[in-house]
Design goal:
The chain is α/β, with parallel strands linked by helices and 210 residues long. It folds into two domains: 140 residues, 3-Layer(aba) Sandwich (Rossmann fold); 53 residues. It has ten helices and six strands, in the order βαββαβααααβαβααα. A four-stranded parallel beta sheet has the order 4-1-5-6, sandwiched between helices. A two-stranded antiparallel ribbon has the order 2-3. Helix 3 runs antiparallel to helix 4 and helix 8 packs parallel to helix 10. It is globular and about 50 Å long. The mean pLDDT is 92.
Protein backbone atom coordinates (compact mmCIF):
# COMPACT_ATOMS: atom_id res chain seq x y z
CA UNK A 1 0.00 0.00 0.00
CA UNK A 2 1.04 3.60 -0.54
CA UNK A 3 2.64 5.31 2.46
CA UNK A 4 0.58 8.30 3.59
CA UNK A 5 1.95 10.77 6.14
CA UNK A 6 -0.62 13.40 7.20
CA UNK A 7 0.37 16.58 9.01
CA UNK A 8 -1.45 17.88 12.09
CA UNK A 9 -3.12 20.59 10.00
CA UNK A 10 -4.62 18.02 7.62
CA UNK A 11 -5.79 15.72 10.40
CA UNK A 12 -7.55 18.64 12.06
CA UNK A 13 -9.15 19.86 8.84
CA UNK A 14 -10.43 16.39 7.90
CA UNK A 15 -11.53 15.30 11.38
CA UNK A 16 -15.32 15.24 10.77
CA UNK A 17 -15.39 13.95 7.19
CA UNK A 18 -17.44 10.85 6.40
CA UNK A 19 -17.67 8.90 3.16
CA UNK A 20 -21.30 7.89 3.45
CA UNK A 21 -21.20 6.57 7.05
CA UNK A 22 -17.50 5.69 7.20
CA UNK A 23 -15.32 8.10 9.20
CA UNK A 24 -12.22 9.52 7.55
CA UNK A 25 -9.91 7.55 9.87
CA UNK A 26 -11.36 4.26 8.61
CA UNK A 27 -11.34 5.50 5.02
CA UNK A 28 -7.63 6.30 5.19
CA UNK A 29 -6.91 2.98 6.91
CA UNK A 30 -8.49 1.06 4.03
CA UNK A 31 -6.75 3.08 1.31
CA UNK A 32 -3.23 3.68 2.61
CA UNK A 33 -0.46 2.65 4.95
CA UNK A 34 -0.97 5.70 7.20
CA UNK A 35 1.85 6.72 9.51
CA UNK A 36 2.74 9.81 11.51
CA UNK A 37 5.74 10.81 13.57
CA UNK A 38 5.59 10.88 17.36
CA UNK A 39 5.65 14.69 17.27
CA UNK A 40 2.28 14.76 15.47
CA UNK A 41 0.70 12.89 18.38
CA UNK A 42 1.95 15.58 20.78
CA UNK A 43 0.67 18.35 18.50
CA UNK A 44 -2.77 16.77 18.27
CA UNK A 45 -2.96 16.57 22.06
CA UNK A 46 -2.19 20.28 22.26
CA UNK A 47 -4.93 21.20 19.77
CA UNK A 48 -7.96 19.17 20.84
CA UNK A 49 -10.00 22.39 20.84
CA UNK A 50 -9.82 22.34 17.04
CA UNK A 51 -11.67 19.06 16.65
CA UNK A 52 -14.46 19.22 19.27
CA UNK A 53 -16.52 16.08 19.64
CA UNK A 54 -13.81 14.01 17.96
CA UNK A 55 -11.08 14.26 20.60
CA UNK A 56 -11.12 10.58 21.57
CA UNK A 57 -11.47 9.34 18.00
CA UNK A 58 -8.61 11.42 16.63
CA UNK A 59 -6.23 10.91 19.57
CA UNK A 60 -6.83 7.17 19.49
CA UNK A 61 -6.22 7.18 15.74
CA UNK A 62 -2.89 9.03 15.84
CA UNK A 63 -1.85 6.81 18.73
CA UNK A 64 -2.42 3.78 16.49
CA UNK A 65 -0.56 5.15 13.46
CA UNK A 66 2.43 6.80 15.17
CA UNK A 67 5.75 5.31 14.12
CA UNK A 68 8.78 5.93 16.30
CA UNK A 69 11.91 4.80 14.48
CA UNK A 70 15.59 4.16 15.11
CA UNK A 71 17.55 7.37 15.86
CA UNK A 72 14.69 9.63 14.79
CA UNK A 73 16.20 12.55 16.71
CA UNK A 74 19.32 12.31 14.52
CA UNK A 75 17.20 12.61 11.38
CA UNK A 76 15.31 15.59 12.74
CA UNK A 77 18.51 17.30 13.94
CA UNK A 78 20.14 16.88 10.54
CA UNK A 79 17.19 18.56 8.81
CA UNK A 80 17.26 21.34 11.41
CA UNK A 81 21.01 21.86 10.92
CA UNK A 82 20.86 21.89 7.13
CA UNK A 83 17.65 23.83 6.57
CA UNK A 84 18.46 27.54 6.07
CA UNK A 85 16.87 29.82 8.68
CA UNK A 86 15.30 26.88 10.52
CA UNK A 87 13.93 27.56 14.00
CA UNK A 88 14.00 24.66 16.50
CA UNK A 89 10.54 25.52 17.87
CA UNK A 90 8.78 25.82 14.50
CA UNK A 91 7.64 23.11 12.08
CA UNK A 92 8.70 20.31 14.42
CA UNK A 93 5.88 18.08 13.25
CA UNK A 94 6.82 18.63 9.62
CA UNK A 95 10.51 17.94 10.33
CA UNK A 96 9.68 14.69 12.10
CA UNK A 97 7.28 13.67 9.33
CA UNK A 98 9.98 14.34 6.73
CA UNK A 99 12.36 12.31 8.87
CA UNK A 100 9.85 9.45 8.97
CA UNK A 101 9.48 9.53 5.18
CA UNK A 102 13.26 9.54 4.71
CA UNK A 103 13.68 6.62 7.09
CA UNK A 104 10.97 4.47 5.49
CA UNK A 105 12.26 5.08 1.97
CA UNK A 106 15.86 4.39 2.98
CA UNK A 107 14.69 1.25 4.77
CA UNK A 108 12.93 0.30 1.51
CA UNK A 109 9.63 -0.02 3.35
CA UNK A 110 8.21 2.43 0.80
CA UNK A 111 9.32 3.80 -2.57
CA UNK A 112 7.63 7.14 -2.05
CA UNK A 113 5.37 8.89 0.43
CA UNK A 114 2.31 11.10 0.05
CA UNK A 115 2.44 13.93 2.56
CA UNK A 116 -0.85 15.70 3.29
CA UNK A 117 -0.37 19.21 4.66
CA UNK A 118 -2.49 22.36 4.83
CA UNK A 119 0.10 24.58 6.53
CA UNK A 120 0.98 26.90 3.65
CA UNK A 121 4.09 28.41 5.20
CA UNK A 122 5.56 25.01 6.05
CA UNK A 123 4.71 23.75 2.56
CA UNK A 124 6.41 26.68 0.86
CA UNK A 125 9.40 26.52 3.21
CA UNK A 126 10.49 23.26 4.81
CA UNK A 127 8.52 20.81 2.64
CA UNK A 128 9.61 22.40 -0.64
CA UNK A 129 13.23 22.53 0.56
CA UNK A 130 13.15 18.87 1.68
CA UNK A 131 11.49 17.58 -1.48
CA UNK A 132 13.97 19.41 -3.72
CA UNK A 133 16.75 17.32 -2.18
CA UNK A 134 15.24 13.93 -1.37
CA UNK A 135 12.67 13.55 -4.18
CA UNK A 136 10.63 11.03 -2.27
CA UNK A 137 7.29 12.77 -1.71
CA UNK A 138 4.12 13.80 -3.40
CA UNK A 139 2.57 16.69 -1.47
CA UNK A 140 -1.23 16.98 -1.26
CA UNK A 141 -3.62 19.27 0.53
CA UNK A 142 -6.71 18.00 2.33
CA UNK A 143 -8.75 19.08 -0.70
CA UNK A 144 -6.53 16.95 -2.94
CA UNK A 145 -7.14 14.03 -0.58
CA UNK A 146 -10.92 14.44 -0.82
CA UNK A 147 -10.71 14.44 -4.61
CA UNK A 148 -8.62 11.25 -4.57
CA UNK A 149 -11.05 9.56 -2.19
CA UNK A 150 -13.91 10.51 -4.51
CA UNK A 151 -12.07 8.88 -7.41
CA UNK A 152 -11.54 5.63 -5.50
CA UNK A 153 -15.01 5.49 -3.98
CA UNK A 154 -17.00 6.42 -7.10
CA UNK A 155 -19.91 5.87 -7.52
CA UNK A 156 -20.64 5.04 -3.87
CA UNK A 157 -19.89 8.51 -2.45
CA UNK A 158 -22.62 10.97 -3.50
CA UNK A 159 -21.24 14.06 -5.24
CA UNK A 160 -23.38 16.38 -3.11
CA UNK A 161 -21.89 15.01 0.11
CA UNK A 162 -18.34 15.23 -1.24
CA UNK A 163 -18.89 18.85 -2.32
CA UNK A 164 -20.27 19.71 1.12
CA UNK A 165 -17.11 18.38 2.77
CA UNK A 166 -14.93 20.23 0.27
CA UNK A 167 -16.65 23.44 1.32
CA UNK A 168 -16.26 22.68 5.04
CA UNK A 169 -12.61 21.65 4.80
CA UNK A 170 -11.75 24.61 2.58
CA UNK A 171 -13.14 26.94 5.24
CA UNK A 172 -10.65 25.55 7.77
CA UNK A 173 -7.61 25.69 5.52
CA UNK A 174 -7.10 29.46 5.76
CA UNK A 175 -4.47 30.92 3.46
CA UNK A 176 -4.78 33.34 0.57
CA UNK A 177 -8.04 33.69 -1.38
CA UNK A 178 -10.06 30.73 -0.02
CA UNK A 179 -12.93 31.67 -2.33
CA UNK A 180 -10.87 31.06 -5.46
CA UNK A 181 -9.50 27.85 -3.97
CA UNK A 182 -13.03 26.61 -3.27
CA UNK A 183 -14.21 27.41 -6.78
CA UNK A 184 -11.28 25.48 -8.23
CA UNK A 185 -11.79 22.51 -5.91
CA UNK A 186 -15.51 22.37 -6.80
CA UNK A 187 -14.71 22.56 -10.50
CA UNK A 188 -12.12 19.81 -10.22
CA UNK A 189 -14.53 17.50 -8.39
CA UNK A 190 -17.41 18.16 -10.77
CA UNK A 191 -15.21 17.55 -13.81
CA UNK A 192 -13.87 14.35 -12.25
CA UNK A 193 -17.45 13.19 -11.66
CA UNK A 194 -18.37 14.01 -15.25
CA UNK A 195 -15.42 12.03 -16.60
CA UNK A 196 -16.06 9.04 -14.34
CA UNK A 197 -19.69 8.95 -15.50
CA UNK A 198 -18.51 8.50 -19.09
CA UNK A 199 -15.90 5.83 -18.45
CA UNK A 200 -16.81 2.14 -18.78
CA UNK A 201 -17.11 0.17 -15.58
CA UNK A 202 -13.99 -1.63 -14.37
CA UNK A 203 -14.36 -5.39 -14.46
CA UNK A 204 -13.81 -7.19 -11.19
CA UNK A 205 -13.86 -4.04 -9.09
CA UNK A 206 -14.52 -4.99 -5.48
CA UNK A 207 -14.79 -1.55 -3.87
CA UNK A 208 -13.81 -0.45 -0.38
CA UNK A 209 -17.11 -0.89 1.42
CA UNK A 210 -17.66 2.78 2.27
Amino acid sequence: MTLLIPDTSALINLHDVYVNRTHITMVLKRLFDVQVSTEIVDEMRRHTDKFPGYEQVMLRYVGQIKRPFHRQQDYEKLILDLRPSAHPDKNRGERYNCSLAAYQVRKQAAMQAIMVIDDGSAHRGLITWFDARFKMMTVWSSLDMLQHIYLLSYPEWPLAQALAYVRAVNGRCGGHDPGARLRQANQNLRELDSMLCRLPQVRGRVGYGF
